[in-house]
Amino acid sequence: xxxxxxxxxxxxxxxxxxxxxxxxxxxxxxxxxxxxxxxxxxxxxxxxxxxxxxxxxxxxxxxxxxxxxxxxxxxxxxxxxxxxxxxxxxxxxxxxxxxxxxxxxxxxx
Amino acid sequence: xxxxxxxxxxxxxxxxxxxxxxxxxxxxxxxxxxxxxxxxxxxxxxxxxxxxxxxxxxxxxxxxxxxxxxxxxxxxxxxxxxxxxxxxxxxxxxxxxxxxxxxxxxxxxxxxxxxxxxxxxxxxxxxxxxxxxxxxxxxxxxxxxxxxxxxxxxxxxxxxxxxxxxxxxxxxxxxxxxxxxxxxxxxxxxxxxxxxxxxxxxxxxxxxxxxxxxxxxxxxxxxxxxxxxxxxxxxx
Lengths: 109, 236
Known about the structure:
The complex is a heterodimer. By secondary structure, chain A is mostly helical. Chain A has helices at 5-30, 37-43, 46-60, 71-87, 90-108.
C-alpha cells in the first residue's frame, strides 16, 4: 500500500459516514415509506454484483505471482466456491479454500 | 412491570444474538490480520471496524487500497457493497421508526447483517410487541456481537504484526469473498449477476483506476434484476 495517513483516514471516515447514512436513511430521514419495487430489485443484487467483480482479476492474475495465473490460487478459489455452494457455510468455505491453498502451494511449490 | 418486560426483551435479544459471535469473530480476526499485513497500523485497522462495522465493505476497501486505487473509486465500491443496508433500514422502519431520534441514530450505527436478521425475524413473528420492547430487543442483539467484532479485530491486528509474508495472505481476501458469495448464489438471478460481474470485470481489467469495477457492478445488478423479472414471468 502506497498511501498517506491522511488518505487512509479519509477513506475510513468517508466510508464510516457513508455507511451510517445508508443505515440511517429510512430509519432516520425518509421514514415509513415503501421503496419502489424496481429499486429493491436492484438492491437485492448489490453484494453478488460488486464482490465478484472485485476478486475475479485477483484470482486470474494474482499480484503475488506478478500477475501470472497460478494453479494453487485457482484451485483454492474453486475449493472456497465449491464448499460454499455445497455447505452454504461461510466459515467452512474459508477453511476449505485456505486448506487447499496451503496444500497446493506445498505440493506444487 | 413495564421496565421488567423491557429488560427481559433486551436479554432475549442478547440471547438470540449470541450464536452470531461465532460468525463475526473469525471475520474480525481475519480483518485485523489482513489489514495489518496490508500495511495499516492498529489505529487504522480499529478505525475501520469501529466506524464502519461492515466486514465485506472493509475488505473491499482494503483490497483496493493495496492496489492504490483512487479514493473516489474505493469509497464508491465499498459503499456499493453496503447499499443492501438501505433495504434493512426500510424494512425496520415500520417497527422502530417511532423511537426518539437519538435512539434511531444509535440503531442505525448498529444496523449490521446479524442484528437486522435477528431483529426483523422477531418483529415479523411478534408484530404486537410494544415499541420499548422492540427497541430493547434490537439493542440486545448487538450487545455481544459488536464487542466481539471490535475485540477480535484488535486481536487480529496484534497477531498480524507477527505473521511473516510467506503465508500467502495476499489470497485471504479473494477466499473470504468467494466464501461470502457462494452461499448467496440462491437463485438463477443471483448466479446471473455474479457471472456478469466476473465477465465484465475481466473484460474491462485494462481500464485504469479500477474503473471497470463500477461498470461491472452496475451491469451485474441490472442482469440480476432482469433475470428475476423473467423468472417471475415464467412462473406466472
